Every structure is written in structure tokens, then in C-alpha cells.
Amino acid sequence: MSYTACMPELPEVETIRRTIEPLVLGKTILEIRLLDTSIAQGTPERVRGEPVGTTITAVNRRGKHLILMLDNGKGLALHLRMTGSVLLEPPTHNPRVRAELLLSDDVRLYFNDMRRLGVMELIDDLDARMEKMGPEPLSDEFTTEALQSRLARHRIPIKAALLDQHIIAGIGNMYADEALFLSRLHPTTPAAELSLEQVARLWTALREVLTLAIANQGASIDTYVLPSGERGTAYDCFNVAHKKGAPCPRCGTPLERLMVRKRGAYYCPVCQRPDKPQNSEA
DNA sequence: CCCGGAACCTGAAGGC
DNA sequence: TGCCTTCAGGTTCCGG
Q: Which residues, in sequence order, are CB contacts of A37 under 8 Å at separation 6+?
């Protein structure tokens, strides 16, 4: 069996945010070197030009976006997509540095990305942009009711709904699978058909899975590493994700993998039966 | 509006 | 051994 490709999701980006914020807070951006201009959203000139001279007032995360907040009210956003990483030193393994940020006090950030899917963008109106995204799953506004009302509008498989950043922010393939396992839901169940009780289980599972992963500094299955280059240990806590053939931690049945909307979905065929009797509310 | 599929990208892995 | 194809998945765009 092959374990490939895990990408930075909410816990991984949050780990990067927590690591770099104390290092870059209050620093001035001296220069942005775009070694690969194709990562720039909009024009490269704007991305590397406008932030120069501004000071970083905070490092935020919204979904999978890492956002350097600038003192001019704008945000310099990084999205790592599949294989991007933020490093404090130039990488020695697989060096594919796409951009370098030179800050005051000799602080430097390196944006490394083997594949070139990751992007850097200067966002003028942060509020408007972030409003288009679903709620933050660890925020107070993300209630069981909020999740229920959002899922009720979609008949797509629940696995696909969890991956849709407009419905809920920050969830990727790994943590969607982990949450569905904990809540004992089959990945192809139509989102709108979940009972209130099932949605409540899913809500709890999402919070547990993400919180535990953050505590473990993310999952380094493939290319993700901390800014220091060290590996996160969240994979050690996984029940099903990227574990096809391994015994289910709950019942011992070999875990399976099926395709849902062209995405691999790891699950237990016994604990997550598709046709469990639903709590129908007549 | 809702949904499915293609495209983007590159290294790993599998087939022949 | 080596070439060729397929796959991995976050996001956007396009078409039905």
C-alpha cells in the first residue's frame, strides 16, 4: 500500500502561524524576493512591491490561509496548497524556494514548494475575502446548529461537503476522514440527509480531531514540516487516514479506501456503514 | 444555484 | 533496467 501526499490543512497552518508569529511580530518587511513569479496572485510587482516598508502587526490564519497582517490594513496571504512549507532557514532537502521574505532584525522566511500550486497574494479587503469562506470550525460561532444549517443545503456526499471551503473552512482530506470515522458516518452519505444527532456527533468529532492535531503540531506524512524543519506527530494519532489495510482501532476490520469525487476516502466498512438506520424526523 | 469534471503541478510508484 | 502512465489532492474555472 502506498502512503502519499498529505497537505497542510488547518492544524498544519495553525502550527506554522503559532511558530512564526512571535518571530515576525513588529518586524518591517525589507524585501520580498519572488524566485518564481508564477506563485503571485495578481501581478508579481504588486505582491513584492506594496508590502515593502510595512510592519507586521499580527499573523492570522483563516481556513488554510496564513496571513501576515500589515500596518497598512492589508494582508499578505500564503496558501501552501499541496506541498508548500514555510521555513526559517533555507531548506537542505528538496530545495524549491519560490519566495524569500527579508524582515528587519535579520529575520527571514522561506516559502518552499516542490509543486508550484502554492500562492502568495496581497489582499486589500480582508473582510470581504474571508466572508466568502465557511466558518472556522474552532470558533465560537461554529455551533452544531451552524453546521446543521449549512449541511442541510447540500445533497453532495458529506465527505465532499467537509472539503468545500465555502461550507466549512480549513478541513482537508485527512481530517475529513478522521472526523467521519469518529462520528461513524459513511463518506458518501448525502450531507443534507444527516440527522441532528449525526450532525452533533460530526461537530464534536471535528473539534476533537483538529484540536488533537494542533496539539501534535500537524501531520508530517509527506512534505509538511514545521518552520524549524522538524516533523509534526499528528499522524501517530490517526485512526484511518492513509491507513488502508490496517485494522480498525474500534472493531479490527481492515480499513478500506474508496473514491469520493476523485478523492481518496479512508474508512472502516463496518463502523461506518452507509445504511445505518437514520433518525428520521417526520 | 447546484453539481461534476478538467486543469494546474511534479515526484513517486506501478505496469509492461 | 527503463520508459510510460497513473496517482496524490487544494483550488478554480467551466459546462450542463
A: A44
Q: What is the tens place of the pLDDT at every residue in A142-169?
A: 999 999 999 999 999 999 999 999 999 9
**What is the pLDDT at residue A201?**
96
| CA-to-C1' span, A155 to B2 (A) | 9
Number of domains making up chain A: 2
What cell was used for A54? 510595512
Mean pLDDT of A202-225: 92
A64 labelled catalytic:
yes
Residues 6+ apart with CB under 8 A from A82: A5, A7, A115, A117, A118, A223
Closest CA relative to residue A61, chosen from A154, A126, A155: A126
Q: Report pLDDT for A93.
A: 79
> Does the residue A201 lie in any domain?
yes
Closest-lying nucleotide for A190 based on CA to C1' = B3
A207 is catalytic: no
Specify whether A263 is located in the same domain as A149: yes
Residue A79: nearest nucleotide (C-alpha to C1'): C10
pTM for the model = 0.94
In this prediction, residue A276 carries a pLDDT of 53
Question: Which among A146, A136, A150, A211 is positioned nearest to A178, based on CA atoms?
Answer: A211
Angstrom distance, A81 CA to C13 C1': 17
Domain that holds residue A42: 10-131
